[in-house]
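Example for tutorial group B:
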C-alpha cells in the first residue's frame, strides 16, 4: 500500500475524483471503488467523468450504466467545478490533461489543476510527458488502473460483492478478457474477485457476446472496405465524409464501425500485425486509431504515432492521435514511419 496517499487521505475531508476519458469500465471502476472506499473512511467525495454518453455506442453506454453503483458517478464536464473547495483531487486512469475535461468538444476547456496543492494521479498508461499531478502512482506494466488502485490504495478486502463485480469489469475491459497485459498478479486479483461469487458471465456476455445486428452489418462493411498492405504488415480502413454520406451513416454507426474494426479486425489477421483506422475530420485533419497484435507486432504504437504528431500516450499496442493532413497524407506518413522501424 502507498503510505504517502494514505497520509494525504488521513488529512483530508473533501475529495474530488475525476475518472478519465474515454468512458470505459476501468475508468468507471477505479473511480467508483476509490469513492466508496473514501466514503467508508468518512470523507465527503464527489466523483465525475467529463464524458458525453454519445462518445460511446448506445449499447456500450447501456452496459456501463448497468454496472454496480454507476449512479455514484456524475457525467459532467469539469470546467465549472471549484477545485479549491476540495482538499485532494484524484485523477484516475488517465495520462494527459485532455483526459480530464471534455476535450472531445471543440469548446471544451481544460481545468487548472496546476493551481491545486494536492493532485494525485493513479494511472497505468505510458509514462506522462506533461506533469499534471503533485503526486503520481504510475505503472505501465499493470493491466488496469483498477489493479493499480487495489494494490496501492484500496485493500481488496474492502470490496463487497458489487464492487468486486465492478473491479472484474475493469480488468476484463482493459485486458480483453485476459488476452493481454495480464500478469500473475492480475490473475491472482481476478481469483480473489471470483471468490466473492460475482456473476462474471454477465460481464463477459455484455462485453463480448451481445452484438447488435447493426454491428454485424457494419462489420461486414468494414471487411469489404479494408485495404491490405502486406508490405507494411498493416490493414487500413479509411472512413471519409464521402463514404459516410454515401452510406447515410449516423454518428452511432461511426462508433460501431470504430469498435468493429478495432475489436474484430486490427491485429487479428495473420501476416498483418497492425490495423489502423483513419477518420477524416474536416478538411485537413485526420484521426488515427491503431491497434497491434500483442504477439506479432514489434512496433510500439504510441511511439509510432508520436512521430506523426501524437503525444505518445496509450498502451504499447493501442493508441490514438489527431494529425494535420488529409486522410491520404496520413496514410502515407504512417507507412513511411512504419518503414523507419527495424
Ligand atoms: Mn485503463
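The residue assignment follows.
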Amino acid at each position: 500500500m502507498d503510505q504517502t496517499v494514505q497520509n494525504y487521505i488521513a488529512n483530508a475531508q473533501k475529495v474530488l475524483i475525476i475518472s478519465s476519458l474515454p468512458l470505459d469500465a476501468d475508468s468507471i471502476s477505479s473511480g467508483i471503488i476509490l469513492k466508496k472506499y473514501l466514503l467508508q473512511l468518512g470523507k465527503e467525495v464527489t466523483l465525475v467523468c467529463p464524458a458525453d454518453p454519445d462518445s460511446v455506442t448506445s449499447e456500450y453506454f447501456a452496459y456501463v450504466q448497468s454496472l454496480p453503483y454507476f449512479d455514484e458517478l456524475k457525467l459532467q464536464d469539469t470546467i465549472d467545478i471549484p477545485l479549491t473547495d476540495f482538499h485532494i483531487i484524484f485523477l484516475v486512469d488517465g495520462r494527459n490533461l485532455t483526459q480530464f475535461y471534455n476535450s472531445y468538444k471543440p469548446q471544451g476547456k481544460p481545468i487548472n489543476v496546476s493551481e491545486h496543492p494536492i493532485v494525485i494521479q493513479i494511472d497505468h498508461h505510458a509514462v506522462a510527458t506533461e506533469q499534471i499531478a503533485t503526486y503520481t502512482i504510475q505503472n505501465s506494466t499493470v493491466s488496469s488502473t483498477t489493479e493499480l488502485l487495489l494494490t496501492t490504495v484500496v485493500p481488496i478486502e474492502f470490496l463487497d460483492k458489487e464492487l468486486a463485480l465492478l473491479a472484474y469489469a475493469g480488468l476484463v475491459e482493459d485486458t480483453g478478457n485476459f488476452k493481454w497485459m495480464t500478469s500473475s498478479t492480475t490473475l491472482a486479483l481476478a481469483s480473489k474477485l471470483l471468490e466473492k461469487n460475482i456473476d462474471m458471465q454477465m460481464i463477459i456476455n455484455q462485453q463480448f457476446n451481445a452484438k447488435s445486428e447493426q454491428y454485424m452489418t457494419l462489420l461486414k462493411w468494414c471487411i469489404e472496405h479494408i485495404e491490405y498492405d502486406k508490405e507494411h504488415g498493416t490493414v487500413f480502413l479509411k472512413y471519409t465524409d464521402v463514404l459516410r454520406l454515401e452510406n447515410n451513416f449516423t454518428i452511432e454507426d461511426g462508433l460501431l464501425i470504430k469498435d468493429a474494426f478495432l475489436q474484430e479486425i486490427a491485429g487479428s489477421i495473420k501476416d498483418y500485425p497492425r490495423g489502423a483506422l483513419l477518420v477524416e475530420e474536416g478538411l485537413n485533419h485526420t484521426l488515427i486509431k491503431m491497434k497491434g497484435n500483442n504477439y506479432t507486432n514489434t512496433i510500439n504504437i504510441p511511439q509510432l504515432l508520436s512521430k506523426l504528431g501524437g503525444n505518445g500516450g496509450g498502451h504499447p499496442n493501442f493508441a490514438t492521435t489527431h494529425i494535420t493532413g488529409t486522410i491520404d497524407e496520413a496514410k502515407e506518413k504512417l507507412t513511411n514511419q512504419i518503414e523507419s522501424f527495424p
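The pocket of manganese (II) ion is lined by residues 26, 93, 124, 144-145, 174 (CB under 6 Å). Compare this with the pattern of hydrophobic and polar residues in the output above.
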